[in-house]
């Protein structure tokens, strides 16, 4: 249930969704953390905020993605669109 909520909020990508995703960065479920970080990165990017902040969120999402290949592809796509990659 928390995963689905984080995923939905990540796709909404507005100020209210970001408010709700922030606390989920501390969730015990790594996939919830990954979706939350992805959503915060996407919201940051969509609202025209700091490119560096978006990249940091995407890299945090990438560290927590686990075996979710759909999310991993989305993260990689957003990083590529920003012309960046996460440090190894």
Structure, explained:
The structure is a single chain. By secondary structure, the chain is mostly helical. The protein has one domain (2-81). 74% of the residues lie in helices and 0% in strands. Helix 1 packs antiparallel against helix 2 (15-24), helix 3 packs antiparallel against helix 4 (51-64) and helix 4 (51-64) runs antiparallel to helix 5 (69-81). The model has no long low-confidence stretch (mean pLDDT 94).
* Count of DSSP-assigned helices: 5
Q: What is the string of SSEs from the N terminus onward?
A: HHHHH
Binned strand content? under 5%
Structural class: mainly alpha
Low-confidence stretches: none
Largest sheet: none
End-to-end CA span: 31 Å
Radius of gyration: 11 Å
- How much helicity do the residues have? over 70%
Tally of individual domains: 1
The average pLDDT value, as a whole number, equals 94
Shape: globular
* Tally of DSSP β-strands: 0
Note the main attributes of this structure:
88 residues; mainly alpha; 74% helix; 0% strand
Quick description:
The protein is mostly helical and 88 residues long. The protein contains 5 helices and no strands. Helix content is 74%, strand content 0%.
Secondary-structure map:
Elements: H1 2-12, H2 15-24, H3 30-46, H4 51-64, H5 69-81
């Amino acid at each position: 249930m928390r995963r689905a909520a984080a995923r939905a909020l990540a796709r909404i990508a507005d100020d209210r969704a970001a408010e709700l995703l922030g606390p989920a960065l501390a969730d015990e479920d790594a996939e919830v953390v990954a979706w939350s970080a992805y959503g915060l990165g996407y919201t940051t990017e969509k609202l025209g905020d700091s490119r560096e902040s978006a990249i940091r969120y995407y890299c945090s999402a990438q560290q927590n993605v686990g075996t979710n290949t759909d999310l991993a592809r989305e993260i990689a796509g957003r990083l590529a669109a920003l012309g960046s990659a996460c440090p190894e």
